[in-house]
């Protein structure tokens, strides 16, 4: 693979870096303390084209390849993982899945609004009783004439309280396909759908995470995304690319941890000289630097495979597994460099660690990634 960025890729990274400096960095601490990023950021992300990356211009997208998408995601993750998550879900899990699986009518209905930041999308797979074993979900879709009636509860849904549309996975009683899971695009103002904000998160506090409850939610059969009974495949295809996006966000966290730790080590003096002069501090810094590079290279490899139309799902699991664990390690090592000051939120590294921690949990825990990689290696499903 060619590790040289093209002019367009370099330009989009610069654009993202400037956007983060201008629109995100000044607010990060306040948003984290307030447990909400300012919603106006969604429109700004749309205006600059970040919510339309890789989507065809015909549907309001801004085009570009997956490496450009990863570069932007990394920069957003470097700035604020809560904002990065808005893009990874609304574009990465929802808009891109509509672009891949949607009918012409669904694409025209949803993509221009999602890519412009006028709509927010959320991805409703996890339930209170099913997380890792997502295929075992209990939400029901019962056919009633030319409609479906949805009943069930979704848990931990990123963007949930803000979203205009939920890509919802339900067990369709009619479906003969894989475990009968079917995907639906459900407007969140549909009667019978209620939402509750999940408070008290360790990290990603700025993100609107919600529980969604569906009681007799009626949607037309045309709301179905992809064939009936093939919804689990829709979900897994979305998550494979989603893992690339999470990995890129983790690279951003690790890079931010490295930048902050190197700067602080040059400024903070102990034993009569900057702590950067102490060998064990240099060990912490070099451990972070190796994690950043390794995570970035694994992530770029996935983007390269996607852009060349080659199989990428197992490589996405490897990148997500490594990058998420690396982000936690990097943020933790950076906190060690900061000493006691790392433990208070005037300095950035505590938030990086809190935000990094969930990356080993969502879109498949580290254990689930290992089982996916193990299955690819052995042909044996050990779930
Ligand atoms: P469980 O599945 O109960 O797992 C608990 C533990 O058991 C884990 O350590 C797991 O690795 C382990 N385990 C489970 N099965 C096995 C096995 N077979 N072998 C070995 N170990 C196993 N979901 C969405 O659908 N949409 C979202 O937008 C979304 N956003 C999220 C945002 C946040 C902040 C959080 C915290 C979660 C979000 N999730 C979302 C849910 C997330 O994907 C799940 O939390 C995750 O899949 C794990 O499920 P669980 O929490 O039910 O844990």
TrEMBL record:
Keywords: FAD, Flavoprotein, Oxidoreductase
Pfam families: Acyl-CoA_dh_1 (PF00441), Acyl-CoA_dh_M (PF02770), Acyl-CoA_dh_N (PF02771)
Keyword field contains Oxidoreductase: yes
Presence of the UniProt keyword Flavoprotein in the record: yes
Gene3D superfamilies: Acyl-CoA dehydrogenase/oxidase, N-terminal domain, Butyryl-CoA Dehydrogenase, subunit A, domain 2, Butyryl-CoA Dehydrogenase, subunit A, domain 3
SUPFAM superfamilies (UniProt xref): Acyl-CoA dehydrogenase C-terminal domain-like (SSF47203), Acyl-CoA dehydrogenase NM domain-like (SSF56645)
The Acyl-CoA dehydrogenase/oxidase N-terminal domain, residue ranges: 6-118
Domain called Acyl-CoA oxidase/dehydrogenase middle: residue spans: 122-217
Ranges of residues in domain Acyl-CoA dehydrogenase/oxidase C-terminal: 229-377
Family, as annotated: Belongs to the acyl-CoA dehydrogenase family.
Name the record gives this protein: Acyl-CoA dehydrogenase family protein
Classification of source organism: Bacteria, Bacillati, Actinomycetota, Actinomycetes, Kitasatosporales
């Amino acid at each position: 693979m060619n590790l040289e960025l093209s002019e367009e890729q370099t330009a989009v990274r610069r654009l993202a870096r400037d956007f983060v400096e201008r629109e995100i960095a000044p607010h990060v601490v306040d948003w984290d303390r307030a447990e909400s990023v300012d919603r106006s950021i969604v429109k700004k992300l749309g205006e600059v084209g970040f919510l339309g990356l890789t989507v065809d211009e015909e549907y309001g997208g801004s085009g570009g390849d997956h490496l450009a998408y990863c570069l932007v995601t990394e920069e957003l993750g470097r700035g604020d993982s809560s904002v990065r998550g808005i893009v990874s879900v609304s574009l990465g899990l929802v808009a891109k899945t509509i672009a891949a699986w949607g009918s012409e009518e669904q694409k025209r209905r949803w993509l221009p609004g999602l890519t412009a930041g006028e709509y927010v999308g959320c991805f409703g797979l996890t339930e209170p009783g099913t997380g890792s074993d997502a295929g075992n979900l209990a939400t029901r879709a019962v056919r009633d004439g030319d409609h479906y009636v949805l009943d069930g509860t979704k848990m931990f849904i990123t963007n949930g309280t803000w979203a205009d549309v939920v890509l919802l996975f339900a067990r369709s009683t009619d479906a003969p396909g894989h475990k009968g899971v079917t995907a639906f695009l459900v407007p969140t103002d549909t009667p019978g759908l209620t939402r509750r904000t999940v408070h008290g998160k360790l990290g990603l506090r700025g993100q609107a995470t919600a529980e969604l409850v569906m009681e007799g939610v009626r949607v037309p059969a045309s709301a179905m995304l992809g064939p009936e009974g093939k919804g689990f495949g829709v979900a897994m295809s979305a998550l494979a690319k989603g893992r690339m996006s999470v990995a890129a966000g983790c690279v951003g966290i690790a890079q931010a941890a490295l930048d902050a730790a190197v700067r602080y080590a040059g400024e903070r003096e102990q034993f009569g000289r900057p702590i950067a002069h102490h060998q064990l501090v240099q060990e912490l810094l070099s451990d972070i630097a190796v994690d950043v590079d390794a995570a970035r290279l694994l992530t770029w490899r996935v983007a390269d495979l996607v852009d060349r139309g080659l199989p990428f799902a197992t490589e996405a699991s490897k990148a997500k597994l490594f990058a998420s664990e690396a982000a936690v390690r990097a943020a933790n090592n950076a906190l060690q460099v900061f000493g006691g000051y790392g433990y208070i939120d005037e300095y950035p590294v505590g938030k990086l660690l809190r935000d990094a921690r969930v990356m080993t949990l969502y879109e498949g825990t580290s254990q689930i990634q290992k089982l996916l990689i193990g299955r690819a290696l052995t042909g044996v499903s050990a779930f």
